[in-house]
Amino acid sequence: MNIDGADWLIRDYRPADEGAWLRCRVLGFLDTSYYDDVLVSKPRHAPGVGLVATAGDDIVGLCDASIDEASATIETIVVHPDFRRRGIAHALVQHTCERLQRAAATTVDAWTREDPGTLAWYQAEGFSAVFRYLHVYASTPQEMERATTPRPGLMPRNGHFHAWESEEAILRERFDRVYGCNRFMKAI
Questions:
Q1: By C-alpha distance, which of 150, 180, 176 is closest to 162?
Q2: Angle at 129 between CA 128 and CA 131, to 5 degrees
Q3: Could you say which of 55, 72, 141, 160 is the most buried, measured as most Cβ atoms within 10 Å of its Cβ?
Q4: Residue 80 sits in which domain range?
Q5: Phi–psi pair at 99, nearest 5 degrees
Q6: Distance in angstroms between the alpha carbons of the first and the last residue of the chain
Q7: What confidence score (pLDDT) does residue 6 get?
Q8: Average pLDDT by consecutive 10-residue portion of the chain (188 residues)?
């Protein structure tokens, strides 16, 4: 494909891609609310679909999806910041959905936080928001004290919690990092 003068193509993920896959994922998430979701190895989702977008020898986008009977989940979709707005994410999700459909999946969902551009992108791709809850991070000892009951000898320093939307206002007052976690879904 030739988009905006930059040559890129989509192909299946290969085990030798793991290092470049991890770098692309980290850089792609760095300016989002997933900035600290760092992995040291690529998760294995079997059965599933794993695609990468390449520009020359570089991985510039990736999409992984898992399949459970007729339901599929996009586990990761991200584009390297230097290659955004070229149609790569659209092409990745389109090819992934085609592969999922051939594997007998009838729906695909994806979970994402509240980055406005990402939410708008999923809607533009035909996904509908169907569920939302909160990710709450206690990042300091003071926030951990607000989140947990102290126990003798246990000194919690940070934590990741899930909470219902009904608690959003009070949690946003008490914690610096609260994100809406949104489930999007579409028929394929």
A1: 180
A2: 145
A3: 72
A4: 2-105
A5: -65, -40
A6: 24
A7: 57
A8: 62 97 97 92 90 96 96 97 95 97 96 96 97 94 85 83 96 95 96
Q: Which of residues 40, 75, 105 is at a domain's end?
A: 105
What single letter denotes the amino acid at residue 71?
S
Are 114 and 183 in contact, with CB atoms under 8 Å apart?
Answer: no
**CATH code: domain of residue 24:** 3.40.630.30
Does the global pTM surpass 0.90? Answer: no
Q: Which residues are bridge partners to 132 per DSSP?
A: 182
Q: Characterise 11 by phi-psi region: left (phi > 0), alpha (psi -120 to 50), beta (else).
A: beta
pLDDT at res. 46: 77
Backbone angle region of 62, left / alpha / beta, with phi > 0 → left and psi within -120 to 50 → alpha: beta
The C-alpha angle 52, 42, 53, rounded to 5 degrees, equals 10
DSSP annotation of 44 reads P
pLDDT for the residue numbered 149 = 81
- What gap in Å lies between CA 75 and CA 111, rounded to an integer? 8
Return the exposure string of 74-103: e unless at least 16 CB atoms fall within 10 Å of the residue's CB, then b: bbbbbbbeebeebbbbebbbebbbebbeee
Same domain, 117 and 188: yes
